[in-house]
Amino acid sequence: MILLTQALVTQPVQIFFIVLVIILFAPLLLNKLKIPHIIGMIVAGIVIGPYGFNVLDNDSSFALFGQVGLLYLMFLAGLEIDMYHLRLNLRRGLIFGILTLVVPLVMGVLSSMYLLGLDPVTSFLLGAMYASHTLLAYPVVARLGITRSPAVIIAVVGTIIAVIGALLVLAAAVSVRREGYFNIGAIGLLMLKLVLWVAALLYIYPRITRYFFKKYSDKVLQYVFVLVLVFFAACTAQLIGLEPVLGAFFAGLLLNRYIPVASPLMSSIEFVGNALFIPFFLISVGMMINVGVFGDTRTLGVAAIMLVVALASKWLPAWIAQRIIGLNADSRRVMFGLTTAHTAVALAVVAVGYRLEMFDERILNSTIAVILVTCALAPLITAGAAARLKVEMVDNGVDSSPAPKNQRNNNTLIGIANPVTAAPLVEMAVLMRNTRGTHHFYALHVRNDNTLKSKALSYNSMEAARKTGAAADTEIEILDRYDLNTVTGVLNAIEERDITEILLGMHRRQTVVDSFFGVKVEQLLRATNKMIILSRCFIPAGTITRVVVWVPPGAQYETGFNRWVRALSRLTRQVGCRIIFCCPGELQPLIRGVIYSENYGIRCEFRTTEGWDDLILLSNTIQDDDLFVVVGARGQSVSYHPEMAELPSFLQRYFAQHNLMMIYPEQFGEAPVLTSFTDPLSSDIGASPSSLMVNLRRLFGRLFRAK
Fold first, then answer.
1. Whole-model pTM?
2. pLDDT averaged over the chain?
3. How far is it, in rounded angstroms, from Cα 420 to Cα 546?
4. How many C-beta neighbours within 10 Å does residue 572 have?
5. Under CATH, to which class is 12-393 assigned?
6. Where do you find CATH 3.40.50.12370 in the chain?
7. How far apart are CA 103 and CA 513, in angstroms?
8. How far apart are CA 353 and CA 122, in angstroms?
9. What φ, ψ does residue 228 adopt, rounded to 5°?
10. Which of 131, 182, 274, 545 could make an S-S bridge to 625, C-beta 3.0–4.6 Å?
11. What pLDDT is recorded for position 408?
12. Could you read off the pLDDT of 271-299 as tens digits, one per residue?
């Protein structure tokens, strides 16, 4: 080991270059050795740090970026939690949280008093160190995609309780040390501040976030806005006497609802954190570890006792919780691995004790040894168990159960008419992406001439679609087609790309005699039997509070029934809101069966409706932040009713300013489309006598009203 008084590299540019080299090559080298790259970052920090070869000094820059990385890690932990599964596992998480707080605290106090000979107050302070832990191995489970598993959610809830409890014990021990007695008033004041702080953020954050996202669509502004909220929560938590990590985590929970997993904003947040801030934190942890503490025999004895207590006191709660809750062995190991590492809070506790002369150098150095070993073991334990848990979840259909064969592959055609509507349509399509099979996206722009204006419009539309897809880490294949008309171009693309569903922007009426859906959409409905989705959303998808779906009687008999239920379920899951199905009673168990068989894990509710009159009553209950979805039907289909002829005018009259989605399910499977005998070139499906009478009645009604 080389010990120098001054680091070899002191220039900022060189320091940043060395850190980037470590971030780049540590995963590449350790992936070949089947070692989690987290360990590589920590080991690299030890090697280049002041206790290694002293290449870099653990100065204020590493303290700054390391603290930012820790807050970013906790923020991502809160942001990636599935709130639906969090509610389901909240009670079990509370059980584990109490266990992982009380068991280490009791074991730490007893071992400190009877094995290390410390006084009761100091023993309680050291017990707070054992009780606290950091989700250092969380990137491991995030990379494997099991953040929604019960074991991970329970561990996260347990972390919140353990850290809060450890900080309260720390405050009580410091109060006794300074004042000579237990000041229950100070603890009560801290609890009051905590309650008021939580209530204030619960009230402010949802409202300000919804307002900002509606007003500003620029992704850079949204990203900076999110970081401002995260660090404001961290700063205010620190001001009231809590750890900033709690503020960052709570901000993640509050913003979880407004940042869908498949959104471009989420991709930006994860990219910046995983590429820069979190690796900086891991390297800074390694730079704080002094491997020289293992040279002292007495320190080794104390370190051995503390290490045994630290590991046993975290394994025992995981084992007890497993027995109580009924989880398997791999879930127990994941819970144990996630709650094993001691870093920031443990350092804060021992630093306070050392400053108040409650701990000597042996305890301080032994704590460093505990941090070193637990930080090395946590990713290894978590990685092995998480990989097996992932396989079990896939085999049991809990995580990624495959859809039926005819629903496994999706090819979505997104009709892009102009650059303004391109981005919202692509975002909506990505939110409905099928993650349990292959899903290809095609952005189509059809032009009827080769003028410079048409070419420029096509190019700008395609660029907007491509950039939106790239921001969401989704490949969008661009289709710039010159054809006779828009409908013909869409139909040709459907046949060439084996399209399963078409997503279009909802037509906006330009003249009084113009229809609600527009001539092009009406022609397309008659010309293809594929599922067509018409979307018009005035607000960002992440700010939708409810998805209200009106389903007509007989919709279960359509060929595409399962497909549109799955599409809406995926949308609801990504957004994280509720979905309410307004449908007849016989449809409810069928819709529920599709959702539960696919394990989407969404909050679905049902309202019993019977006919057209109930749809009219819904107009009074749809709010500005709702997405109203109407499941329609083509003429002569099983679920078509004569009253549906009035649907366009009804939607125009009552829902002109609401977020609206119209779905026409797939029909006939792969059967050819029937054409009209009287006009074979129109690709029209003949109107039924009942619908014809309705149309005639509407026509005469308009003529008399015009007079």
1. 0.72
2. 81
3. 25
4. 26
5. mainly alpha
6. 406-673
7. 74
8. 8
9. -60, -45
10. 545
11. 56
12. 888 888 888 888 887 787 777 766 667 77
- Say what the pLDDT of residue 700 is: 45
- pLDDT for residue 133: 84
DSSP 263-327: SHHHHHHHHHIIIIIHHHHHHHHHHH--GGGGG-HHHHHHHHHHHHHHHHHHHHHHHHHHHHHT-
Structure confidence at residue 182 (pLDDT)? 67
The answer to whether domain 406-673 has CATH 3.40.50.2300 is no
Alpha-carbon torsion (83, 88, 92, 94), positive or negative: positive
* Per-residue pLDDT, 509: 54
Within the chain, all domains assigned CATH 1.20.1530.20 are found at 12-393
- Contacts of 218-223 with C-beta under 8 Å, sequence gap 24+, read 219/264, 219/265, 219/268, 219/471, 222/265, 223/265, 223/268, 223/269, 223/272
Among 232-236, 521-525, 576-580, name the one with the lowest average pLDDT: 521-525
- Rounded to 10 deg, the angle between the 60-79 and 278-288 helix axes is 130
Q: Which residues fall within 8 angstroms of residue 577, CB to CB, at 6 or more apart?
A: 257, 544, 545, 546, 547, 603
Q: What is the pLDDT of residue 85?
A: 66
pLDDT of residue 316: 95
Look at residues 156, 105, 111 and name the one whose alpha carbon lies nearest to residue 134: 156
Burial 465-500 (b: 16+ CB within 10 A, else e): bbbbbebbebebebbebeeeebbebbbbbbeebebb
Q: Cβ(360)–Cβ(112) under 8 Å?
A: no
**Of 184, 218, 118, which Cα lies nearest the Cα of 468?**
218
Confidence of residue 160 (pLDDT cuts 50, 70, 90): confident
Confirm if 335 and 155 have CB atoms less than 8 A apart.
yes
Question: What does the buried/exposed string (b/e) look like for 433-461 if buried means 16 or more CB atoms within 10 Å of the residue's CB?
Answer: bbebeebbbbbbbbbeeeeeeeeebbebb
* pLDDT value at residue 515: 52
Q: Six-digit token pair at 663? A: 């779905």
